[in-house]
Write a structure and sequence with these properties.
By secondary structure, the chain is an alpha+beta fold. It folds into two domains: about 60 residues; about 40 residues, no CATH class. Helices cover about 25% and strands about 20% of the residues. The protein is built from five helices and six strands, in the order ββββββααααα. The strands form two sheets. A three-stranded antiparallel sheet has the order 4-1-6, with no helix packed on it. Strand 2 and strand 3 form a beta hairpin. The longest helix has 12 residues.
């Protein structure tokens, strides 16, 4: 997102791994007290985001956007992401979903279907709890 005034509207990056991390780095010349805040809508958070800052969010499951900056200011961002499709490709033995499922017998297909239905629990388990972070009781 190479500006000169990069702005994003509220969105979720649906093709990203839902529990994967997305680093966002911002740079430019702007007053971060007046604009370029990151908004994490589902968490009800607005975060000042000064030039040179880096934030890492699960953009595949967290609705986010950013605010405008002044007309004479500049702002760019460099964003990386964790592709859900690439993870599936590796998880399926470097083959398409169709090829992978066709290679399974019925018992294996049933097991795979169950695993897919509970994958979100595995992803959620990757995040630390407040206790693990040493947060408030």
């Amino acid at each position: 997102h190479f500006g000169p005034q990069t702005v994003s509207f509220p969105h979720v990056d649906f093709t990203n791994l839902p529990f994967g991390w997305c680093p966002i780095w911002t740079f430019g010349n702007y007053n971060h007290h007046k604009g370029r805040h990151i908004i994490l809508w589902d968490l009800k958070m607005v975060i000042e985001f000064p030039p040179g800052s880096l934030i890492v969010i699960p953009s595949g499951s967290c609705r986010h956007s950013n605010t405008r900056i002044g007309k004479k200011e500049t702002r760019m961002s460099f964003t990386q992401y964790f592709s859900g499709g690439l993870c599936r490709w590796v998880d399926q033995g470097f083959q398409t979903q169709e090829q992978y499922l066709n290679s399974l017998d019925q018992t294996e297909r049933d097991r795979e279907s169950e695993r897919r239905c509970t994958r979100w629990l595995m992803g959620l388990g990757l995040y630390p709890t407040l206790d693990e972070l040493g947060g408030p009781p």
